[in-house]
């Protein structure tokens, strides 16, 4: 598909985000057993790196810093060590005419290009070096997607992504009858691999790339699903990997949203209260409690041993003993 440059503005000299003074933040680590001490040292604290966002989402490590979406503001921000504030990297990020939601989930391909779930454009797109966007997938079976939400790129170059309706404009009707999970190959072939989940959200791969994890943000049944990936790219044997619904209460709000996997196969998924750390066997080891609705997380840093967290108006960080994929 041809690149599109409509309404694109990239900040070449990064512009600092004007923010209010950092609000009071109260976070803590919930340790459900000694196993968590091998992933997060007992003395580690949650750091506030930046604040003042409308709804921060979709972080990914790129070019020595973390970049992330502010979905309602149609903007990608960036933060690097030493920055006093986050800076605008890309605007518009997901709605080129500015009349819809911005980017949500972000990823980096093997060439270092930023790949975005563009809510407003209802597509997966790649940001090119010249500032244009190339649409990688915008329809299935001749119908527009709802609003691609989050994505993960396999070693093969295949992109797996979720498509709930959260980014649809007010009054905009979905064209597809389901909230799908899709795969798009490097050649551009789009396949529907899961169609029976309401509100699929975050998505991740196991270290061996044989298991696909999907975070489900259904307010009545928030959970993490696991699927076996087949050689033909299809997903089989769907099962509940972790049921987070029992954790929800008046103090621990939120559902399973964005997620990442570390090199040992532990799943770090946002959920009730913050970020839940789940072993590869499905055991809840503990939580990073942010006290805020928490959207997503990503490993970064020189050796990928820091977890960056987008929690409502905050960008947070916690140093880990685990390393991200």
> What is the CA–CA distance across the termini?
30 Å
Can you tell me the overall shape?
A: globular
Helix content: under 10%
The largest sheet is: 5 strands, antiparallel
Per DSSP, the total helix count is 0
SS-based class? mainly beta
CATH fold topology: Neuraminidase
Low-confidence regions: 1-20
- Binned strand content: 35-45%
N to C succession of SSEs? EEEEEEEEEEEEEEEEEEEEEEEEEEEEE
Helix and strand arrangement:
Elements: E1 3-4, E2 10-16, E3 28-31, E4 47-51, E5 56-62, E6 65-70, E7 75-79, E8 87-90, E9 103-108, E10 114-118, E11 123-127, E12 133-137, E13 139-140, E14 143-144, E15 151-153, E16 159-162, E17 181-184, E18 190-194, E19 200-205, E20 211-216, E21 223-229, E22 235-243, E23 259-261, E24 267-271, E25 274-278, E26 284-289, E27 296-300, E28 306-311, E29 314-319
Antiparallel strand pairs: 1-12, 2-8, 3-26, 4-29, 5-6, 6-7, 7-8, 9-10, 10-11, 11-12, 13-14, 15-16, 16-17, 17-18, 19-20, 20-21, 21-22, 23-24, 24-25, 25-26, 27-28, 28-29
């Amino acid at each position: 598909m041809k690149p599109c440059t409509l309404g694109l503005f990239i900040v070449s000299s990064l512009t600092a985000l004007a923010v209010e003074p950092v609000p009071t933040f109260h976070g803590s680590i919930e340790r459900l057993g000694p196993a968590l001490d091998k992933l997060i040292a007992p003395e580690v604290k949650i750091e506030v790196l930046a604040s003042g966002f409308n709804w921060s989402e979709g972080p990914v490590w790129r070019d020595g810093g973390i970049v992330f979406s502010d979905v309602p503001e149609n903007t990608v921000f960036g933060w690097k060590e030493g920055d006093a504030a986050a800076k605008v990297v890309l605007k518009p990020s997901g709605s080129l005419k500015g009349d819809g939601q911005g980017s949500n989930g972000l990823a980096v391909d093997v060439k270092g290009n930023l790949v975005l779930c563009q809510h407003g454009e209802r597509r997966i797109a790649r940001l090119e070096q010249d500032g244009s966007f190339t649409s990688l997938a915008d329809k299935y079976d001749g119908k527009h997607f709802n609003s691609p939400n989050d994505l993960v790129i396999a070693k093969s170059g295949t992109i797996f992504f979720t498509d709930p309706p959260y980014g649809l404009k007010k009054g905009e009707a979905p064209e597809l009858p389901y909230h799908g999970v899709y795969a798009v190959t490097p050649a551009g072939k789009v396949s529907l691999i899961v169609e029976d989940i309401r509100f699929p959200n975050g998505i991740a791969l196991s270290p061996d790339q044989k298991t696909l994890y999907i975070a489900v943000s259904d307010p009545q049944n928030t959970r993490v699903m696991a699927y076996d990936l087949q050689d033909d790219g299809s997903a089989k044997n769907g099962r509940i990997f972790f049921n987070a619904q029992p954790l929800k209460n008046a103090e621990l709000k939120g559902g399973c949203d964005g997620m990442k996997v570390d090199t040992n196969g532990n799943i770090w998924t946002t959920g009730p209260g913050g970020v839940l750390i789940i072993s590869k066997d499905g055991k809840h080891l503990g939580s990073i409690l942010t006290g805020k609705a928490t959207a997503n997380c990503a490993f970064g840093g020189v050796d990928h041993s820091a977890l960056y967290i987008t929690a409502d108006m905050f960008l947070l960080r916690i140093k880990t003993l685990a390393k991200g994929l």
